[in-house]
């Protein structure tokens, strides 16, 4: 049981978190942020374990992890 | 639910200028987290060099001196000699540390200067636009080696950390990489060890971190991590190069 | 104003001699300046220095026409003989310099300094012998100031040499008188 | 009453630095200034200071940058080619507003040149020296006593203006010995709230010359130039000799000015009314005394141990009002008073 919050404005859509997620529940959003990047979003809140892998891999430190 | 991971207090909460997928941001966070966990931000002085990471003074939430290309170890020496109680580290890329700053880094190690060196190696000049670095692999393309690096023309990649480890003044040298959660954790441990050795009054230490440059390598971030492991790492094997236990 | 040029080869104590003179002059509240010559080579060849002792402010930090030349060996004599001011003095170490001067308008004082030093049992004090001659001939500083300066300049572990130095200076002075 | 001691120019500079509160020296050997690092290697540890010989001049100046950024009084010294190598760091220090004292014991150039005293680095010293739009406060002592006094003051000036200060001497000044009175040790160093180091209760400090945004850099440049204007207003130093009735004025600084003085005495003995203006601060240049003396002066003669560099500043000071000539010897040849006298007589004859 966990949750992540992504500061979408800070995200550059690099996809490193998507690759790091063991549950494969992060994807790029269909919309863009003000910088023009498609930000990462959590696709399945219930499946998130709060493992923090996405946080560890995020170069822009825009993910908060809750457990 | 509790917040278990979030933006460290030892970083300034501003967007970073790095390209999408550049691992500098991860390495900045690791350095900042170690400083936060060791509760030493009040006595830390970072030394910025020149290259993509030269603006790290905008991000680290503690004192920073910005030095010139390659000269960070000399500036760190000046700061450390005046404030031996402080944690002083340099943050340098391979263009900076392995080319123009070769003399400064080697002699800081030779002196056993009590500083930590965070050496980010992606085998290319980033900020100036993807030129060949001394760390660029043979046959690797760069804007100043458009046909691939010719060893006949420019020689071979330089192994800085091995060279630094040879110096008696160097107490700890390790090469890590940013490629998985496990290697990120390993990198953090190495940074912590380097900082702890410095606080304990031991000598010079260096953590070389194999990194990527998606923009100048012309790859997607994920692809560049794979390329790094399949190419850069074969030339620069990760692992412990010199442990403080080897130091007499 | 005394403009002294002291010249010899490295190891003859030329620099020490110059420093003692400058120091002694300072003790007598004279204006003084010590000018070493320095070359790319650290050792060997001729060594020379200049000392200016004056009652008035010293302007130029250069001695081109010395009033007195102390020549400790032949190359120094050859090199500087012609530079000495008209009616100046050349004090030469006659143990090593056997040639005669070609100058007509200078006073020559010959001192067998090396032999005197040898006679005193220490060849290294030829600089003191010539220093004694110099102050006897020129009266540029007093012997008391020289001795006091020597004591201050020489490191304590060399103070055992002070009596010998004094004797060398005094013997040389009595030879002139 | 202070007693006089006989000191070599270079050693006197080193001692004055210690007395002024300098506790850190970073340098690299080069003739003819080696007695400065040698003296400090011996004496700094005795007062709890640090002497460190770097692997190059470049490294040395960046150690100075680090030490200065950390709030200490720091010095380096070198001679012409070594100062050229340090220029990158000097520019960084000017940009980062870090105080330090840099001693340049000039020798003959260009290139490796020769080690004998000369004055060929005037332009380099007074025009900033490195890249970028900056200035150093440059003080040029003529005697060993003045070297002591100016070095002692240089640290205060560097701190006051947060700018590198250069002591510009030559091989003659560094090598001669003269009696000096030493000042009292300074035990009250200024607080530097901007410096890096242990930090319990203040926001982080950044010492940097990096200003990637153009409007920001323009602001910094304007601030620096306002400071240079303050230096120009407050720190002009010069001396004059027999100028009251002078019809001919020699401009000369450092060791050359002493030779000029001797020549002026000779000329006066022959009835030639010649005087001397001696800039002590060569940047800021003492413009006013030159301007003020124009009405009574027939010509100016810049006497420098180079092909003529300060002559530009003399001309800038007086405009096209009077002819400005140059005399000097090159490569480390020391000009004699008699030579200068001959030049003065020749020019006086032409002027009539």
Detail the topology: elements first, then pairings.
The complex is a heterotetramer of chains A (67), B (248), C (177) and D (352).
Chain B: E1 3-5, H1 24-38, E2 44-48, E3 63-66, H2 72-82, E4 87-93, H3 94-100, H4 102-110, E5 116-121, H5 151-154, H6 160-165, E6 170-177, H7 181-199, E7 204-210, H8 214-217, H9 221-235, E8 239-242
Parallel strand pairs in B: 2-3, 2-4, 4-5, 5-7, 6-7
Antiparallel strand pairs in B: 6-8
Helix pairs in contact in B: 1-7, 3-4
Chain C: E1 2-9, H1 14-27, E2 31-36, E3 46-54, E4 68-71, H2 74-80, E5 89-93, E6 107-111, H3 113-119, H4 126-138, H5 143-153, H6 162-176
Chain D: E1 4-8, H1 9-19, E2 24-27, H2 35-43, E3 50-53, H3 57-69, E4 74-78, H4 80-95, E5 100-108, E6 114-117, H5 122-126, E7 137-139, H6 144-161, E8 164-170, H7 171-175, E9 177-181, E10 206-207, H8 214-234, E11 238-241, E12 248-251, H9 254-269, E13 274-279, E14 281-283, H10 287-293, E15 299-303, H11 310-318, E16 324-327, H12 337-351
Parallel strand pairs in D: 2-3, 2-4, 4-5, 5-8, 7-8, 12-13, 12-15, 15-16
Antiparallel strand pairs in D: 1-9, 5-6, 7-14, 11-13
Helix pairs in contact in D: 1-2, 1-6, 3-4, 9-12, 10-11
Q: What distance lies between the first and last C-alpha atoms of chain B, to the nearest angstrom? A: 49 Å
- Along the chain, the helix and strand elements of chain C come as EHEEEHEEHHHH
Question: How helical, in percent, are the residues of chain B?
Answer: 25-40%
| Annotated CATH topology of chain C | Pyruvate-ferredoxin Oxidoreductase, domain 3
Could you name the CATH class of chain C? Alpha Beta
Please trace the helix and strand order of chain B, writing H or E for each element: EHEEHEHHEHHEHEHHE
User: Quick one: which chains have the greatest interface?
Assistant: B-D, 34 and 40 residues
In CATH, the homologous superfamily of chain B goes by the name: Thiamin diphosphate (ThDP)-binding fold, Pyr/PP domains
Q: What is the oligomeric state here?
A: heterotetramer
Q: Which runs of chain B of at least 5 residues are low in confidence (pLDDT < 50)? A: none
Number of helices of chain C: 6
- Strand % of chain B is 15-25%
Low-confidence stretches of chain C: none
Q: How much is the radius of gyration of chain B in Å?
A: 17 Å
Name the shape of chain B in a single word: globular
Mean pLDDT of chain B: 96
Summarize the structure.
The complex is a heterotetramer of chains A (67), B (248), C (177) and D (352). Chain A contains two helices and four strands.
